[in-house]
């Protein structure tokens, strides 16, 4: 078994993804640090979705909540978000509260010692002395990974959960997306062979990158990437799909693909990454929006997803359509994050036992 402590940072950084995944895992195979979507195979995804469903039914009663609150009562979590967030932040905070973890937070590096010139690395290492878990959202693509390596060299390695790293990855969003898809299709033959149509800013959105990765765990999934030409999906994702033998299409014609979709995954334009002011506003996005007319093109059994926040890419009138899943995604996110934190601290079998004995 490969371990982070066996490598210097340059050696670790140069490892192929499969070796990195091994370094980041706990002995039972579940991630210790959760940094990439690639860390989750089908068995781990099924396990987390199952745990999330157990936790949400245990949490319905007072006695169940008391049990859950006792699980990680002795642990503390640091939520370090230096990029804007409301949903993911509150979702992790709520998940920690459900499992009894106490939390601390930094949401603005300008009020921490980073303002005095302390490096991010030193700040995060400081947090690791006070806390048992670090949940981290940053602008910088590789920071969570670098910190996971750095903490592993210290005497007190604490797990890091990546809550969004630059334009690259958002693995816990992908977990909640998969959980939502699984619940939507569990009584209708599952996810195998489904067509997923991703729409919007696929060049700079991290959610689609992580989700398309996770969905390769189901055979025969077809991925359709629909975006204006300037915002098309990265070639690295297409290469990843090719190497896993999954079918994909790249298109800028949303209307043509809506009737084929089992799930439509909308995203907003990520203009915070614009290099010059107003650059995104010059891109014609008018044909990448969903209203009632577009909903009429979708199959009756298809679902409509969005990681949120939305702007105008889904009209509010669509919310009343039973196929609109984005508010359910928000709720599912809290439960799957509970499951991930519980698995990170190896509480899964205690949850299984409680569930079996009491529900
Ligand atoms: C997404 C993100 O931060 O990447 N938001 C989220 O976590 N639900 C999507 C976005 O900001 O567009």
Give the structure's gist in a few sentences.
With 359 residues, the protein is of the alpha/beta class.
- Percent strand: 5-15%
Major β-sheet annotation: 5 strands, parallel
Structural class: alpha/beta
* Side-by-side strand order of the widest sheet: 7-6-5-8-9
Report the count of strand segments: 9
- State the name of the first-level CATH class of the largest domain: Alpha Beta
- Overall geometry comes to globular
What is the tally of helical segments? 14
pLDDT below 50 for ≥5 consecutive residues: which ranges? none
What do these coordinates show?
- Helix 5 links the parallel strand 1 (76-81) and strand 2.
- The mean pLDDT is 95.
- The chain has a five-stranded parallel beta sheet with strand order 7-6-5-8-9, with helices on one face.
- The chain is built from 14 helices and nine strands.
- The relative contact order is 0.15.
- It is α/β, with parallel strands linked by helices and 359 residues long.
- Helix 3 crosses helix 13 and helix 8 (171-185) packs across helix 13.
- The chain has helices spanning 9-13, 17-24, 42-58, 62-71, 87-98, 120-130, 143-153, 171-185, 206-215, 235-243, 254-257, 292-295, 326-344, 348-358, and strands at 76-81, 102-106, 133-138, 160-165, 195-199, 222-226, 247-251, 263-266, 303-305.
- Helix content is 41%, strand content 13%.
- It folds into two domains: 4-170 and 332-349, Rossmann fold; 171-330, Aspartate/ornithine carbamoyltransferase (Rossmann fold), CATH 3.40.50.
- Bound molecules: N-carbamoyl-L-aspartate.
- Residues 87-88, 164, 170, 173, 206-207, 267-268, 307-308 line the site of N-carbamoyl-L-aspartate (NCD).
């Amino acid at each position: 078994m490969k371990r982070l402590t066996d490598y210097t940072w340059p050696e670790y950084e140069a490892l192929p993804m499969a070796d990195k995944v091994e370094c980041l895992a706990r002995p039972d195979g579940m991630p210790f640090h959760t940094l990439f979507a690639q860390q989750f195979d089908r068995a781990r995804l099924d396990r987390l979705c199952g745990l999330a469903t157990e936790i949400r039914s245990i949490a319905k009663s007072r006695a169940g909540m008391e049990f859950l609150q006792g699980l990680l009562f002795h642990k503390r979590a640091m939520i370090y978000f230096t990029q804007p967030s409301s949903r993911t932040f509150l979702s992790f905070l709520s998940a920690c509260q459900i499992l009894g973890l106490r939390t601390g937070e930094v949401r603005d590096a300008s009020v921490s010692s980073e303002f005095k010139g302390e490096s991010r690395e030193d700040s995060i290492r400081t947090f690791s002395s006070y806390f048992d878990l670090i949940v981290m959202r940053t602008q910088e693509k590789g920071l969570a990974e670098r910190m996971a390596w750095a903490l592993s060299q210290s005497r007190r390695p604490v797990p890091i959960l990546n809550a969004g790293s630059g334009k690259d990855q958002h693995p816990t969003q992908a977990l909640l997306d998969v959980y939502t898809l699984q619940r939507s299709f569990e009584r209708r033959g599952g996810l195998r062979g489904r067509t997923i149509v991703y729409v919007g800013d696929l060049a700079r959105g991290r959610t689609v990158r992580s989700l398309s990765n996770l969905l390769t765990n189901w055979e025969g999934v077809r991925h359709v990437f629909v975006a204006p030409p300037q915002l098309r999906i990265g070639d690295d994702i297409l290469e990843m799909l090719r190497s896993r033998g999954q079918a994909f299409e790249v298109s800028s014609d949303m209307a043509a693909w809506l009737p084929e979709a089992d799930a439509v995954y909308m995203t907003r334009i990520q203009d915070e990454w614009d290099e010059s002011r107003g650059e995104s506003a010059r891109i014609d996005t008018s044909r990448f929006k969903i209203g009632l007319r577009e909903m009429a093109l979708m199959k009756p059994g298809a679902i409509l997803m969005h990681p949120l926040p939305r702007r105008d890419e889904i009209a509010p009138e669509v919310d009343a359509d039973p196929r609109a899943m984005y508010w359910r995604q928000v709720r599912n996110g809290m439960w799957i994050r509970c499951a991930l934190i519980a698995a990170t601290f190896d509480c899964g079998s205690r949850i299984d036992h409680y569930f079996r004995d009491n529900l």
